[in-house]
Specification:
The chain is an alpha/beta fold. It has a domain at 3-45 and 60-79 and 213-279 and 414-470: FAD/NAD(P)-binding domain. The chain has 17 helices and 16 strands. A hairpin with an 8-residue loop joins strand 3 and strand 4 (52-53). This is Phytoene dehydrogenase-like protein.
């Protein structure tokens, strides 16, 4: 029986392990931390009984993929729950905009921008199953659905500030700016619309669901399915050298490209080593977990039913903040994402106190404390929020990086979403998972299709490894 070692137990490492084990490979996963999951961990970090997601909280692209269809994680305890409102964006005057699963309902609430919103997202929603199949894989491939991909690409290639001009109201423009800002990119750059268009359409087609009982249930379900197929997971095992791994047939590295170079040393060809070292990481995140009595009192009513709330004001204000963090400057009013998972999964709360998971976009490696800035920004759109806070727990960009080495400098999307890296990550190659070292493959979110708990980078990397094994 062929053997494999997987270094790292994030969703991609576990997906790679499970894919290999299902093909008859004897798999061992090595995890440096005392717990598995990478970005899919959950814990009671503020008050007993309040379950917070440590990093990734909502999973719009994880519910229907080649990986999820291949493995019935529901049989291993994974269940999804949806908020009524997928995401909302309040403005200073008490108005705002929101996204429901229905394109029609969302468009109708946008008033003068109803027709334009429906034209863009309605057309993409009808074809999104085909589009997702295309972009959840390496960009260098022959598309099976070129017409659907072309329409998606025509919108995605535009700077977000340009695409947002198709809408006339500040509410609709801010709504798109907020979802586009998930890319951690200046909104005036090429391809800065791509992630916003993808996540915005996914909100209609799949919703932005949470894992019932916390994001850790995703990794727990994968681990259970892996054990069922004979795979093993060892925690508390740090890998710094290839020689520590013995002599497996396959090695999968759920690590950053730079960490892969350190582990592989001279086994990796010099040209690939240079490419990995040139891999760019983006800005960081500053996280705060709040325990909030009775939830956040948003002035914009739909935000109270939203799983995710984007804060940053108008399109222009968000664009300014994103330019500043890209240039290494901390904005006075940073862009902020607020996760209200208990809206969809009430068991996360306890005795009327709700866990709220928040992160602000900050410069890479920023060591400052943004807790008060975040509180002020939430208070700006939810007067009275401060008085409802019962506990907090903060982590700086540097602390995030120390907790998870894949998040270099606090980069929680594992690689800057520059135009080059959106198309070619981690390097220009027909097989972006191959490291050049025989039998060794990179499977982290630094490889296509990038960040998320969908496991598709691990799935594709494992398929590449199996092709190598069968050659």
């Amino acid at each position: 029986m062929p053997t494999a070692i997987v270094v790292g137990s994030g969703p991609n490492g576990l997906a790679a392990a499970l894919t290999l084990a299902a093909d008859g490979v004897d798999v061992t996963v090595l995890e440096a931390s005392d717990s598995i999951g990478g970005g899919t961990r959950s814990d009671e970090v503020t008050l007993p009984g309040l379950l917070h997601d440590v990093c990734s909280g909502f999973h719009p692209l994880a519910v229907d993929t080649a990986f999820s269809r291949a493995f019935d994680l529901g049989a291993h305890g994974l269940r999804w729950a949806h908020p009524e409102v997928q995401y909302a964006h309040p403005l200073d005057d008490g108005t705002g905009a929101a996204v429901w699963r229905s394109v029609d309902r969302t468009a109708e609430a946008l008033g003068r921008d109803e027709r334009s919103y429906r034209r863009l997202f309605g057309a993409l929603d009808r074809r999104f199953d085909l589009i997702v199949e295309e972009f959840l894989q390496p960009m260098l491939h022959v598309p099976r659905h070129p017409l659907a991909l072309a329409r998606f690409g025509a919108y995605s290639v535009l700077p977000a500030q340009v695409l947002a001009k198709r809408w006339r109201t500040p509410q609709a423009r801010a709504l798109f700016a907020g979802v586009a800002a998930h890319a951690f990119r200046p909104l005036n750059s090429l391809l800065s619309s791509a992630i916003g268009v993808a996540l915005g359409t996914a909100a209609h087609r799949f919703g932005w669901p949470v894992a019932v009982g916390g994001s850790a249930r995703i990794s727990a379900a994968m681990a259970s399915a892996l054990a069922e197929r004979g795979g093993r997971i060892e925690t508390g095992v740090s890998v710094s050298r290839y020689d520590d791994l013995g002599d497996p047939d396959i090695v999968m590295l759920d690590t950053s490209p730079a960490a892969a170079v350190e582990i592989l040393g001279s086994r990796i060809p010099a040209r690939i080593s240079r490419s990995y070292r040139r891999f760019r990481h983006g800005p960081g995140a500053f996280q705060v977990a709040f325990a909030v009595e009775d939830g956040i009192p948003w002035a914009y009513e739909p935000a109270r039913s939203a799983g995710t709330v984007h804060l940053g004001g108008t399109l222009e204000q968000i664009a300014l903040a994103e330019r500043q963090i890209w240039r290494g400057r901390m904005p006075e009013q940073p862009f902020i994402l607020v996760g209200q998972q208990s809206v969809a999964d009430p068991q996360r709360a306890a005795a009327g106190v709700h866990p709220v998971d928040v992160y602000a976009h900050v410069p890479a490696n920023w060591r400052g404390d943004a807790t008060e800035v975040i509180i002020d920004q939430i208070e700006r759109f939810a007067p009275g929020f401060r008085t409802r806070i019962r506990a907090t727990r903060s982590r700086s960009a540097q602390e995030i990086s120390e907790h998870n080495p894949n998040y270099v400098g606090g980069d929680i999307v594992t690689g800057a979403n520059t135009p080059r890296q959106l198309v070619f990550r981690p390097r220009v190659a027909l097989d972006p998972y191959a490291t050049g070292a025989p039998g060794v493959f990179l499977c982290s979110a630094a490889t296509p299709p990038g960040a998320g708990a969908h496991g598709m980078a691990g799935w594709h990397a494992a398929k590449s490894a199996l092709n190598h094994l069968n050659d």
